[in-house]
Amino acid sequence: MIPIDTDLLVLGGGTAGIAAARAASRNGLAVTLVEADRVGGPRTLLSWRVLERTVDRHVARGECLRASVWAEARAELARLAELREERLALRLGDAGVDLVHGRARFTSPHELEVASGARVRFDRAVVAVGAGAIGFDGDAPDGRRYVTADGLFGLSALPDAVLVVGGGAAGAELVDSLSRVKDVEVTWLMDEVGILPRFERELADALGDVLLGRGVKLVHGKAVVGVTVEEHRAVAHLEGGHKYDGPLLVACAGRRAEPTELGLDALGIASLRVDDRLRTSAEHVWAAGESAGECPSAGHAEAMGRLAGRAAAGLEIRPWDPSQIPSVVRTHPQLAQVGLTPERLAGMEVILHTARAEESLAGLLEGVGESADKKGFLRLASDSETGRILGLSAAGPGAGSLASAAAIALRLGATDDAVADVFGDVPGALDGLFAVVR
Predict the structure, then answer these.
(1) Which among 111, 307, 319, 340 could disulfide-bond with 344, CB atoms 3.0 to 4.6 Å apart, if both were Cys?
(2) CATH class of the region 2-133+256-322
(3) Spans of all domains in the chain
(4) Residue 9 has pLDDT above 70, yes or no
(5) What number of CA atoms fall less than 13 Å from residue 245's CA on the CB side?
(6) Beta strands 377-383 and 389-395: pairing type?
(7) Secondary structure letter of residue 158 according to DSSP
C-alpha cells in the first residue's frame, strides 16, 4: 500500500467534491481527492445541456428530426465530456489538490484504503460520493429499452416514441427537448404530485400548458411501481394496474444516496446525515451533495461542497439554507425560483410584485407572447414592513439570471427599493414591478 498523508480527504469527485476540495485548498489545507470513476461525476447535466443546444440549432434551421439531432448530440457530448474532465483535473491540479483514482473504503476514523493500492491518512474528511438513480421493481435497466437518465446517451439511436418517468427537473428538461423534435412522441409519467413538485404551481402549470400544446401526453396521479421489458418494449406498471409501454423508457425518478460500501462504521457514524453546518455526527467528518440528503440540483451540490470545504478548513460558515440557492429548469420557457415561494409565504404579511414579460420592452425584444413557449412572468416577494426581499419566481427568457440576482439580494438582505434602483438592463424590463409603495 502506498501511504498518503493529508490534512483533508475529499471522497467523491463530482460537483460537490470538487467544490469542497478547491475551497479547502484555497484556505490552506493539503487536500487529497479520491474518485472511483471520472472526475465531474455523472454526465447527465452536461447531456441535457448538449441535447437542448442541439435541438435549438435544428429548430432554428427548421429540420428538427431525431436521427440527425441524436447523432449530432452524441458526438458533441463525447467531445465536450472529455474536454470537461480534462479541464476539471487541471483545475484541481492548479489548486494544489492531489487526485487519486479508485474505489475506496474507510478502515479507521482517520484512514481510507483505495483499491488502486493507496492508503490515505487524513485529519478531516468531506464525503461527497453522490447518489445512484432510483430504480423500480421488475427488470433492471437493460441499456436498450429501459435506461436511467445517466445511460440515455449510450443508445446509438432514438426511437420514435419515448416514455419518461419522473416529474422533477431532470424529467422536465428531457421531455422539453424531446417534445421539440418533430418525429418523437413523448409520454411523461408522474405520480400524484405532478410536474416539478419543488416548484411554485404557476411555474409548473406554465410548462405543462406548453408541453400539452406540443402534443406531449401528460400522465399523473398514479406512481410507477414497476418496469418490465417485454418483447422489445418497456412497460411501466402504475399503481392501480394501469400500464404504458413504448420502445424506450427513461427513468428520471430522482436519485438516492448509496453509502453502503464506504465503511462508515469505521468512521464511527451510521449515516451521512448532517447538521446545518454540514457536519456529520463525527466531529472531523462533513458531507455534501446528494450523499448528504436533499440536494435539488448541481448548483445546490456546488454550494454545499464549498461550504463543507470551508468548514473543514476551520472557517465559520453560515447555516446551510437550500432555499437561498436558485433552482433553475432549462426548459422552454425557462423556469427559476429562489427564496420563499408563494406556498411558503401563506399567512405572512408580504407584498407580491408581479410583472408580465409580454408587457415590457425586454419581453418585446425577446419575442415573448409570439408563440406558446415564449411566455414569461416574474414575481418578487418582499416583507410588507421592511421591504426585505423574501423570494422570486420567474418564467421565460433569462429566468435563471433573474433568480441569481435575487439570490444575491437575499444574501445581502436587500430591500425591494434597493433592488428597484438597479434591476433591469433594458428600459421597461420590469415595468410596474415596483409600483407598490408602502
Answers:
(1) 340
(2) alpha beta
(3) 2-133+256-322, 137-253, 333-422
(4) yes
(5) 9
(6) antiparallel
(7) -
pLDDT at position 416 is: 86
317-323 contact pairs (CB < 8 A, 24+): 317/277, 317/278, 319/276, 319/277, 320/274, 320/276, 320/277, 320/278, 321/276, 322/294, 322/295, 322/296, 323/391
Classify domain 137-253 by CATH architecture: 3-Layer(bba) Sandwich (3.50)
Q: Are 120 and 32 in contact (CB under 8 A)?
A: yes
What does the alpha-carbon distance between residue 353 and residue 387 come to, in Å, rounded to a whole number?
11
Calpha distance 219→190 (Å, rounded): 6
Quick one: three-class SS letters along 351-365?
Answer: EEEEEEHHHCHHHHH
Percentage of residues in the chain with pLDDT exceeding 90?
Answer: 69
Rounded to an integer, what distance in angstroms lies between the CA atom of residue 387 and that of residue 304? 28
Q: Which pLDDT band, with edges at 50, 70 and 90, does 437 fall under?
A: very low
Measured distance CA(296)–CA(176) in Å, rounded? 19
424: confidence class by pLDDT, cuts 50, 70, 90: low
Whether residue 431 is predicted with pLDDT greater than 70 in this model: the reply is: no
3.40.50.11540, 3.30.70.1350, 2.130.10.10, 3.30.390.30: CATH of 333-422: 3.30.390.30
Please provide the DSSP assignment of 32-60 as one string: EEEESS-TT--SHHHHHHHHHHHHHHHHH
58 touches 68 (CB < 8 A): yes
Cα end-to-end span (Å), the chain: 69
* Total residues found in the chain within this entry: 438
Instruction: State pTM to two decimals.
Output: 0.90
- Confidence band for 219, pLDDT divided at 50, 70 and 90: very high
